[in-house]
């Protein structure tokens, strides 16, 4: 094993890696963490308002599922483009552009007058949503030293659970203060908040040194790496296996999170606040899962950590949606559900950063993660369609189980990269 992060030789306690960061690295850390949180907040608004849209506009579950699928498909394209863009203009500039983009179109979602307008606005928002993950993951992965990369990137990605929690609180607040036909609009209009965060990034976050060194070398040689190099004979096997890994992780995640509020409300017949209580357990588990997995991905290695959390996700998702348990048991099962399905992602950013060389890291990481998102995006639509003939909970459980099985198989075939030094 390449790293032993819990060893006392590395410092005092589990967070000695953070104390060793420079001021620049800490600003990058908190900027990326906040960026993920704001991205999650805007993204998760849709899952909370689906029941209201079904009731207000008379949408079918397939219609609602299509919104989620279109968002994920466009986010996949946005992630590819952001990866290419980050290789061209820089990681920090790409991050700023993507945050402004998803904030603007989230606000437009709140102004939509019909289903078609919402579908278009949400679809356009997806470009920025996917792009923000790519730019932020590359930026953080390149700034942190090799032996702490898994922990640091995983801790940054835990910001997603915090953003999800904020969106749940805002959902409960808006739907308690306003009638449903206005509350869902107010929720989307709050999506303007991330745009203000760009001011901080612009002033205090710099490009990674490894990227700047490559840019200087490339400028002197007048040779710019091509996006298509990720499909070269040397890289295509890695690229395709990485796509399978991310397809399984994201297919399972979106199968669960897109439809979970609707499942709790329609099949478990919970109120707004009741649904919020169940989701609070899932979100709390998600945050803890991100943190624990962030340490384990360095301690166990990337592959073992993926397999561990993938197997746990498969088991808990099936239990949560298929077993005839009481509401009280389901409440407590929400914690391990969130723990496993979110913990899967802690090592993803570091792993993809290490799989691709610096010259094509944005292109490779952007493509592999977001192609997985594109395929995984079909899951909400397929679940919506299949739930016309079977129970929604059963449909969620089946698709999630298949997705995590694919992820485990892909992890078994990929190389271990923990502790790998990034070259320029």
List keywords for this structure.
424 residues, mainly alpha, 19 helices
Describe this structure as you would to a colleague.
The chain is mostly helical and 424 residues long. It has a single domain (23-200, 232-413), classed as Growth Hormone, Chain: A (Up-down Bundle), CATH 1.20.1250. It is 78% helix and 0% strand. It has helices at 16-19, 23-57, 61-89, 91-111, 115-143, 149-157, 159-177, 180-189, 193-204, 209-221, 236-257, 260-266, 272-299, 302-322, 327-343, 348-355, 361-376, 378-386, 392-413. Helix 2 packs parallel to helix 12 (260-266). The two termini are 24 Å apart. Residues 1-11 have low confidence and may be disordered.
In short:
This protein is mostly helical. It has helices at residues 16-19, 23-57, 61-89, 91-111, 115-143, 149-157, 159-177, 180-189, 193-204, 209-221, 236-257, 260-266, 272-299, 302-322, 327-343, 348-355, 361-376, 378-386, 392-413.
**Radius of gyration (Å):** 20 Å
Identify the overall geometry.
Answer: globular
Q: Proportion of β residues?
A: under 5%
Helix count, DSSP H or I runs of 4 or more residues: 19
User: Uncertain regions: pLDDT < 50 for 5+ in a row?
Assistant: 1-11
* Category from helices, strands and their pairing: mainly alpha
Q: Per CATH, which architecture?
A: Up-down Bundle
Order of helices and strands: HHHHHHHHHHHHHHHHHHH
Q: What is the helix fraction of residues, given as a range?
A: over 70%
Average pLDDT over all residues: 82
CATH class: Mainly Alpha
